[in-house]
Design brief:
Layout (H helix, E strand, L loop, with lengths): L3 H12 L4 H8 L9 E11 L2 E8 L11 E8 L2 E8 L9 E5 L3 H9 L5 E4 L15 E6 L3 H14 L5 E7 L8 H10 L3 E7 H4 L8 H6 L7 E6 L1 H13 L6 E5 L10 E8 L4 E7 L3 H7 L17 E11 L5 E3 L4 E3 L3 E9 L2
Parallel strand pairs: 7-8, 7-10, 8-9, 10-11, 12-17
Antiparallel strand pairs: 1-2, 1-6, 2-5, 3-4, 3-6, 12-13, 14-15, 14-16, 14-17
Length: 351
């Protein structure tokens, strides 16, 4: 590698002000030491508004664990937007994300992505992963919450013939159920996998405020290591049930949205984005990230749930409120998470 450095230096004489890799990128879009990228290899439509996007990552990608997520960047009208998506492919191979068309970025991915497109990537992250040692598992999912669990199931059915998994998946109709054909095939070929589809348009809501529905479909659910992913109210009910009932294992949860404290919002205020030269009036329950993006400010972001800290932005003046716990943050130079904070009076930000 050291022998290549003089060559790189010589190449810069001919490419300045660009870098040599800017020209290499014309030949291979995955060649970039500054930004991890992935080349879309296949797009599969799972349901009317959902698609699985397979991609081949460039150098620097770390193999994901089943259940993890990654930040995905996509350019829309010349602006790069970042969102976090669960990886639905099994561990150990090229990754994939399964996206439901809700919101600007997800809509663009589902409707417009085609093989040959380039995605911008962040490394795999998250602790919603399979237990280290084999054990009977219960997977509770609703809607797109099936996505990270699908990675787990695909991994287990490939790697462990003795896997013992019960999946209970809630969807509005069978047509809306993600991966239903593949799950049927996997269950038919792996005796240790049982799939229960709970169709709310026919059976009503899967009620987790009491043990009745779980007792009905999985008698031994209390003895299984349990994972849950889905809408906030679905997960809130599951958490409450696990607190009330004696079980052998804690419930492990993956949330796609921030849990906000009731009444955590405040008075709001005028937010000044100094580098972007924009001012926006923001109410006390709207995040600074959302307000900035709505105003056309290019904001750093990642998980949008206060986990990855990609959105950290210097506070130049004013006070913000953390919508998760109501805490006030003030002081020049403080780094704030714009995805979970709202203004509490006038605020100046360096963005």
């Amino acid at each position: 590698m050291a022998k290549l450095r003089p060559l790189a230096g010589a190449a810069r004489l001919f490419t300045t002000p660009l870098e040599p890799e800017d020209f290499l990128g014309l030949v291979n879009p995955l060649l970039s030491s500054r930004q991890l990228r992935g080349l879309v290899t296949r797009v599969e439509h799972e349901a009317p508004d959902s698609a699985t996007i397979h991609f081949r990552p460039g150098r620097g990608w770390l193999n994901h664990q089943a259940g993890q997520w990654a930040r995905i960047g996509v350019e829309i009208d010349g602006v790069r937007h970042w969102r976090s998506y669960s990886l639905s492919a099994p561990a150990g191979g090229d990754p994939a994300i399964t996206v439901t068309a809700i919101g600007q970025v997800s809509e663009a991915l589902v409707r417009n992505t085609a093989p040959g497109d380039v995605l911008f990537l962040g490394p795999p992250q998250g602790d919603f992963v399979l237990p280290e040692h084999p054990r009977p598992l219960l997977m509770l999912t609703a809607g797109s919450g099936l996505t990270p669990v699908m990675s787990m199931i695909r991994t287990l059915t490939r790697q462990r013939a003795d896997a013992d998994v019960v999946l209970i998946h809630s969807s509005r109709t069978m047509e809306d159920a993600l991966f239903r054909e593949e799950l049927g095939h996997l269950a038919g070929n792996h005796p240790g996998l049982r799939v229960v589809h709970w169709v709310t348009s026919e059976q009503g809501r899967l009620d987790l405020t009491h043990a009745g529905h779980l007792d009905e479909v999985c008698e031994d659910w209390r003895t299984r290591a349990a994972f849950a992913c889905g809408p906030s109210d679905f997960l809130d009910s599951a958490e409450a049930l696990w607190r009330e009932v004696d079980t052998d294992h804690p419930l492990i949860i993956e949330r796609f949205a921030t849990v906000r404290l009731d009444g955590a919002g405040g008075e709001g205020g005028l937010v000044t984005f100094t580098r972007s030269d924009k001012e926006v009036e923001v109410d006390g329950s709207t995040t600074i990230l959302d307000a900035g993006e709505d105003a056309g400010v290019v904001m750093p972001s990642g998980c949008r749930m206060g986990i990855c800290r990609t959105c950290l932005t210097p506070l130049l003046a004013g006070t913000v409120r953390d919508l998760r716990n109501g805490e006030l943050i003030t002081g020049e130079g403080e780094l704030i998470q714009t995805c979970v904070t709202a203004p509490a009076g006038p605020v100046d930000l360096e963005v």
